[in-house]
């Protein structure tokens, strides 16, 4: 552990070798939450970045140990709140795997459609916020316009806009809203006609390109050794999509491409996410007309008890691999639970990719890592 | 060579900026495509989804009767201890003792709107209401009693 006096150094005093230590955060608007970065500078060049965590630690893992297998799912919405649906799915999959619960096909299809909608919503928010970090204000509103359609769909179907808690072990909490298919199709048409606006506003913008190209380069070897997953690793050319490698639900039945870029810089990470949104649309288009009729929840016992042993499942959230590890002693509550969050590993690479660059580039490399702080701290 | 690069940079820079400005100008001249809602002013016309999870309520019919049997399934399903069911025993005219709720205390400040209590309820006595304006001046006002005073269980609900 670090010493408290070490962090709050007198910033007015220059170090012996001309080094300046500044504290970025925990309330800096560009850190999207309570992330505290201790940045050591030499002039404008970054010498070292030390993230200090714990400002939003709620001990979710410990809390889950006192909740039953039905109850602990809702807490995971509060970790990575932008892909809360996929977090819930990971936990539900673990309980289903442990108890061998049969999930109806209808539930599987709906789960995948909602997961992909969540992924698009998360990337939309990231695109807007990232462009805003780099000084472009308008894309934020354009991205939120499309995201609003998804949150409306979520509100109609799940009853909440962010913390859905729609997935229960065995299926879904209640059946789809009658308007669901109509609204999703309307969203797809809207999204397809408006996605060119992002290209005009952000991708082809010279200022945006010169601020992100060649900034924060992460090689494929480093991405593997730091444990990066998701779009961060895929931008470096590491194939790590859980939906492809270990398909869950109906991902093995749908056709989609794993988006890979090789440059590894901030612009590649941006492009991976923009292309991933189109792939998610492709998945939804294949499934939306083929949702089978039938039950939306399988038969489960009233009291869920996992057999004695260890269980692990993983899903692909908007940020990377999300893993749930449960040690069960055969009771109604987990004995020990551990979440593998993608944000933590992706944050650990920040020091490596930013050292030697200017402090202005830190915004670009940090923004493209797509950090969600409650996911890192839990 | 340098001059040529410089001029190309200027031209591509200006074109890309103009492309972006064209989008902005389009929306400036097409105000019908603007979708912003002026929230506090549009309260009368604001439509919430019928499934929106705002708070837990207990529907009562015209005779001030509800369907809650006091089985405490919601209390057991709640992850945060939001619901507290206080039961009493009522004596029917035939002299039979019957379990019924005295009060169903609901603490809105602890509720995370996870919907587990609604799913657990065997007699559909409680449901989620789409009301979302919960701010009050005193925290104690968030502790609510869901069953109305003088209400009783509907006939035929076991």
Biggest sheet: strand arrangement of chain B: 3-4-6
Number of domains of chain B: 2
Percentage beta strand of chain A? 5-15%
Q: Specify which chain pair forms the largest interface.
A: A-B, 30 and 25 residues
Question: Can you count the helices of chain A?
Answer: 16
Q: Work out the radius of gyration of chain B.
A: 28 Å
CATH topology of the largest domain in chain B: Alpha-Beta Plaits
Describe the global form of chain A: globular
Mean pLDDT of chain A: 84
Helix and strand pattern of chain B: HEEHEEHEEE
Question: How many DSSP H or I helices of chain B?
Answer: 3
Mean pLDDT of chain B: 83
Structure description:
The complex is a heterodimer of chains A (378) and B (158). Chain A is of the alpha+beta class. Chain A has two domains: 4-52, no CATH class; 60-377, Orthogonal Bundle (Cytochrome-c3 Hydrogenase, chain B), CATH 1.10.645.10. Helix content of chain A is 47%, strand content 12%. In chain A, strands 1-2-3 form a three-stranded antiparallel sheet. Chain A is globular, with a radius of gyration of 21 Å. The mean pLDDT of chain A is 84. By secondary structure, chain B is α+β, with helices and mostly antiparallel strands. Chain B folds into two domains: 2-36; 55-153, Alpha-Beta Plaits (2-Layer Sandwich), CATH 3.30.70.3270. Helix content of chain B is 24%, strand content 21%. Chain B contains three helices and seven strands. In chain B, the strands form three sheets. A three-stranded antiparallel sheet of chain B has the order 3-4-6, with no helix packed on it. The model of chain B has no long low-confidence stretch (mean pLDDT 83).
Note the topology.
The complex is a heterodimer of chains A (378) and B (158).
Chain A: H1 4-7, E1 19-24, E2 36-42, E3 45-52, H2 60-64, H3 72-76, H4 84-99, H5 105-133, H6 138-158, E4 167-168, E5 171-172, H7 180-203, H8 206-212, H9 220-225, H10 231-234, H11 242-245, H12 266-288, E6 309-316, E7 321-328, E8 336-340, H13 342-348, H14 350-354, H15 359-369, H16 373-377
Helix pairs in contact in A: 4-5, 5-6, 5-12, 5-15, 6-7, 7-12, 12-15
Chain B: H1 2-29, E1 55-57, E2 65-66, H2 73-77, E3 83-91, E4 97-107, H3 116-120, E5 127-129, E6 143-145, E7 152-153
Parallel strand pairs in B: 2-7
Antiparallel strand pairs in B: 1-5, 3-4, 4-6
């Amino acid at each position: 552990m670090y010493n408290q006096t070490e962090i709050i150094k007198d910033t007015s005093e220059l170090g012996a070798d001309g080094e300046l230590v500044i504290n970025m955060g925990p309330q800096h608007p560009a850190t999207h939450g309570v992330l505290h970065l201790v940045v050591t500078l030499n002039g404008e060049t970054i010498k070292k970045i030390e993230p200090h965590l714990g400002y939003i630690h709620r001990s979710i893992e410990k809390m889950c140990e006192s909740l039953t297998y039905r109850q602990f799912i809702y807490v995971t919405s509060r970790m990575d709140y932008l892909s809360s649906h996929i977090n819930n799915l990971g936990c539900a999959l673990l309980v289903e795997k442990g108890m061998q619960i049969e999930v109806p096909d209808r539930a599987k299809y709906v789960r995948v459609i909602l997961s992909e909608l969540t992924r698009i919503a998360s990337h939309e928010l990231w695109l807007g916020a990232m462009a805003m970090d780099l000084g472009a204000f308008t894309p934020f509103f354009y991205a939120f316009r499309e995201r609003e359609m998804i949150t409306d769909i979520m509100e109609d179907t799940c009853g909440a806009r962010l913390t859905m808690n729609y997935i229960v072990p065995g299926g879904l909490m209640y059946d789809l809203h009658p308007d669901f298919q109509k609204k999703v199709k309307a969203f797809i048409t809207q999204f397809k006609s408006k996605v060119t606006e992002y290209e005009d506003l952000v991708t082809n913008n010279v200022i945006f390109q010169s601020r992100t190209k060649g900034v924060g380069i992460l090689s494929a070897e480093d991405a593997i050794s730091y444990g990066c997953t998701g779009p961060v690793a895929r931008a470096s050319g590491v194939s790590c999509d859980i939906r492809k490698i270990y398909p869950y639900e109906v991902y093995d039945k749908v056709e989609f491409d794993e988006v890979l870029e090789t440059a590894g810089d901030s612009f590649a990470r941006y492009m991976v996410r923009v292309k991933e949104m189109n792939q998610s649309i492709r998945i939804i288009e294949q499934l939306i007309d083929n949702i089978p009729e039938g039950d939306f929840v399988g038969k489960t016992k009233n009291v869920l008890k996992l057999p004695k042993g260890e269980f692990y499942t993983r899903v692909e959230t908007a940020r990377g691999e999300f893993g749930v590890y449960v040690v069960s002693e055969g009771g109604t509550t987990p004995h020990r639970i551990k979440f593998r969050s993608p944000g933590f590993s992706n944050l650990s690479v920040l020091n490596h990719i930013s050292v030697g660059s200017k402090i202005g580039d830190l915004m670009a490399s940090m923004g493209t890592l797509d950090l969600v702080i409650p996911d890192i701290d839990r | 060579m340098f001059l040529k690069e410089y001029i190309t940079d200027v031209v591509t820079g200006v074109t890309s900026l103009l492309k972006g400005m064209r989008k902005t100008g389009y929306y400036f001249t097409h105000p019908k495509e603007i979708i912003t809602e002026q929230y506090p002013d549009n309260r009368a016309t604001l439509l919430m989804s019928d499934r929106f999870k705002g708070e837990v309520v207990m529907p009562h019919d015209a005779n001030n009767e509800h369907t809650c049997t006091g089985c405490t399934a919601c209390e057991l399903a709640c992850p945060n201890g939001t619901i507290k069911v206080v039961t009493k025993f009522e004596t029917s005219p035939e002299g039979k003792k019957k379990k019924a709720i005295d009060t169903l205390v609901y603490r809105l400040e602890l509720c995370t709107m996870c919907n587990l209590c609604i799913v657990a309820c065997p007699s559909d006595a409680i449901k989620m209401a789409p009301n979302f304006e919960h701010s009050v001046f005193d925290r104690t006002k968030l502790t609510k009693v869901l069953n109305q005073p003088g209400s009783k269980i509907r006939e035929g609900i076991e």
